[in-house]
Amino acid sequence: MFSNSKGVEIKRIVVPPFPENVYILSTDTSEECIVIDPGAEADRISFEVNKLDKKIRYILNTHGHGDHTAAVAKLVDTTKAEFALHEADLGILNNGSEWLEQVIPNYLPAPFPDFYLTQDQLIQLGDLTIKIIHTPGHTPGGVCFLVDDVIFSGDTLFNESIGRYDLPGGDGVVLLESIRTKLMVLPENMTVLPGHGSETTISHEKLYNPFLQN
Predict the structure, then answer these.
(1) Which 8-state DSSP code applies to residue 97?
(2) Which residues, in sequence order, are bridge partners of residue 192?
(3) Beta strands in 32-127 (DSSP E)
(4) pLDDT at residue 191 above 90?
(5) Host domain of residue 110
C-alpha cells in the first residue's frame, strides 16, 4: 500500500491467471472505498477491503474485458456496490465467457452497469476525486482514471509497452492517438499504475516506450 500526494491510499492486489492488477482506493475522509478492475478472486478483494475497515461504494472498470471484470458480479452481489464502465464497451462486456470460465477461477459474467463513465466526469468519495479520461484503442470504451498525481491506465499504457489492439473493437491508430494526446500531455513525474505489470511514470514512457519513439 502507498499514498499519493493528497493522502489517497492505494492498495494493489495481483490476481490470476494473466496476472492482472486490482486497485483499492481509500481515504480517511470516507468509510467507503473504490475498487478498480476486479479481475478475479472476489473473496480475496473483500478480505483486503475488510482489513481497511471500509465498504465498497464503487467498482470502476477501465474496460470490459473479462480478465478485468470476472469478480464484479460477486462483489456487486455481496456489497451492493455500484458498477460502472464506459458505454462503448457494452458490446464487448462478457465476450468470450466460455473460454474465461476455463481459465479464471469462479468466473461470473459481469452485470449490467449501474451507470456509465464519460470523458471528464468526476467521481468523488470523501476528499478522493477521480477524473475519467476516455482512451479508446485497446477497446472502444477504454478509460483511464486520474487521481491527483497518479493515473490508472488499465490496458491502454504499460511499462515500456501499450495495450493489445488485435482483439474485437481494438484499433492501433486510435490507441496511439489516445496515448499521445491524453496521457503523454500529463506531468512527466506522474505515476502510471497499469492493468498488468509494474508501475512506471510518464517521463519514463516518453524516453523508453518503443511504441512512442516516432
Answers:
(1) H
(2) 151, 200
(3) 32-36, 55-60, 82-86, 115-117, 122-125
(4) yes
(5) 2-212
Place of cell 471528464: 120
| CATH number of the domain encompassing residue 53 | 3.60.15.10
Q: What is the count of structural domains for the chain?
A: 1
CA dist list (Å): 24 to 10, 129, 152, 213: 6, 14, 11, 33
Q: How confident is the model at residue 106 (pLDDT cuts 50, 70, 90)?
A: confident
Please tell me the pTM assigned to this model.
0.97
User: Contacts by 94-102 with C-beta closer than 8 Å and gap 24+?
Assistant: 94/64, 94/66, 94/69, 95/64, 95/65, 95/66, 95/168, 96/66, 97/66, 100/66, 100/67, 100/70
Strand-pairing partners, residue 38, are: none
pLDDT score for 5: 67
Cell triple for residue 171? 484499433
* Per-residue pLDDT tens over the stretch 139-179: 999 999 999 999 999 999 999 999 999 999 999 999 999 99
Would you mind telling me the total number of residues written for the chain in this entry? 214
